[in-house]
Design goal:
CATH topology: TIM Barrel
Distance between the termini: 20 Å
Structural class: alpha/beta
Order of helices and strands: HEHHHEHEHHEHEEEHEHEEEHEH
Number of domains: 1
CATH architecture: Alpha-Beta Barrel
Largest sheet: 8 strands, parallel
CATH class: Alpha Beta
Length: 286
């Protein structure tokens, strides 16, 4: 079945949908060099066939949504559009329905210093909107936009401002810790920003500890009836100074049943979560 035949929003209204996992760890497993500020974007620029192979690994694991390699490429329109085309090729080769979600990473990602885990860049909403506008325009060929790893409400407000009136559809996911955004704002207030936005088809969290998922989803469910999204890391902590992950002493448990009971329709993994975990999350349609 080439590509998805209907909007992702319709699928989320009817059933659980399986998201892919971490692109960086899969590219590393394929032997790719992710050094430098572009990170996965370096592989997209130099070896796009390897990015397609990584997407394909997740398709074979059962993923129904592929997130593009555009997270850290800044405002380069060539690479942004290429990221969608590469994911599209993998989706069209799949034997099941697959949607392409264009990653719109936070401003902190292009700084390559871990700022997305702090937020509060010192930029106002207007400047953040100006940064994101050309990126969102260049990624318009995807089925949906993944406004992901958002660390604070200023950036969420900027993204929603750019999205308004475009006709595009998106999900909005914050990176969180200890029941708040990474910048320290209450999660109910953060999720409320998107509650009335018709362009936003789902809200939730990504790039966080699995233990932080359920409280965040409960906060989201308290202010919106939109479907929820959850794709955490494996429990490792990113050290921006050393540019290394520090893994947990034991695998972090994933309470997926509770996530779904709270309203999570779109579940997958982020950093250090590979195809094996995605395959284990696969469930038969209801």
């Amino acid at each position: 079945m080439p590509r998805a035949t209907g909007p992702l929003a319709d699928a989320l209204a009817a059933r659980n949908v399986l998201l892919d996992g971490g692109l960086s760890n899969q590219l590393a497993a394929q032997g790719c060099d992710l050094s430098g500020d572009l990170w996965t974007g370096r592989v997209l620029a130099e070896q796009p066939d390897q990015v397609e192979a990584a997407h394909t690994a997740y398709v074979r694991a059962g993923a129904e949504v592929l997130i593009t390699a555009s997270y850290q490429v800044g405002n380069d329109p060539v690479l942004l559009r290429r990221s969608v085309r590469v994911a599209d090729r993998a989706a069209r080769a799949a034997a099941h329905e697959v949607w392409v979600a264009a990653s719109v990473g936070p401003y902190g990602a292009v700084l390559a210093d871990g700022s997305e885990y702090r937020g509060r860049y010192g930029l106002g909403v207007d400047r953040l909107a100006a940064f994101h506008r050309p990126r969102i325009e260049a990624l318009g060929g995807a089925d949906v936009l993944a406004l992901e790893t958002v660390p604070d409400t200023d950036e969420a407000e900027a993204l929603l401002r750019v999205l308004a009136g475009t006709g595009a559809r998106a999900w909005l996911t914050y990176t969180v810790a200890a029941g708040r955004t990474r910048a320290g704002q209450p999660l109910d207030e953060a999720f409320a920003l998107a509650a009335a936005a018709p362009e936003v088809i789902a809200v939730g969290v990504n790039c966080c500890d699995p233990a932080d998922v359920l409280p965040a989803l409960e906060a989201a469910a308290s202010v919106t009836a939109k479907p929820l999204v959850a794709y955490p890391n494996d429990g490792s902590v990113w050290d921006a100074a050393d540019r290394t992950w520090h893994p947990p002493s034991a695998p972090a448990p994933w309470n997926v049943a509770a996530w779904r009971a709270t309203g999570a329709r779109l579940v997958g993994g982020c950093c250090r979560v590979g195809p094996d975990v995605i395959a284990a999350l696969r469930t038969p349609p209801p």
